[in-house]
Design brief:
The protein is an alpha/beta fold. It is built from 6 helices and 4 strands, in the order αααβαβαββα. Helices cover 37% and strands 14% of the residues.
């Protein structure tokens, strides 16, 4: 039995398998403004950077050696910072402008390669085959699963 995992050969047959599993991309729609307002309120009130997600900390050994990572619904950036310290070039996307401003500040202070962006992923999912690692720890929209699977290379 091989130690090879699906996705280890991003340019080969695995890429086609992942695209096939992903299926058709969802119809585009926007998140409601009230959701952005709620997350802005929560991120504005947060006094400390939370710990990275336990699942990420406990399974770091499964991460690729490096490349491009996406931290989707990044919040205050704890997961993005962990990925950047592990050698990834990180895109950190969140619906909340407050969160994104705080992630940019964190990246600057820690001198980490994190590009934080306000992005409504429901309306603008990632492009196919653009990330080596996609982390979604605090967000669930099952209709985005096909687009996220296709974005993995």
């Amino acid at each position: 039995m091989s130690d090879r995992r699906l996705g280890d050969d991003p340019g080969g047959d695995d890429a086609e398998v992942l695209r096939t599993l992903a299926g058709p991309l969802p119809a585009l729609r926007s998140c409601p403004p009230s959701l952005r307002d709620e997350w802005d309120r929560r991120h504005r009130a947060a006094e400390v950077l939370p710990a990275p997600a336990a699942v990420l900390c406990e399974h770091q050994h499964l991460l690729p050696a490096g490349g491009r990572a996406l931290d989707l619904a990044c919040g205050l950036g704890a997961n993005a910072a962990l990925l950047a310290r592990r050698g990834f070039e990180v895109a950190a996307w969140d619906l909340s402008p407050v969160a994104v401003a705080r992630v940019r500040d964190l990246a600057s202070r820690m001198q980490l390669p994190i590009a934080a962006e306000v992005r409504d992923v429901c309306a603008r999912p990632p492009h196919p085959a653009t990330f080596d690692c996609i982390l979604v720890a605090h967000f669930l929209d099952r209709s985005l699963a096909p687009a996220l699977a296709a974005a993995q290379r």
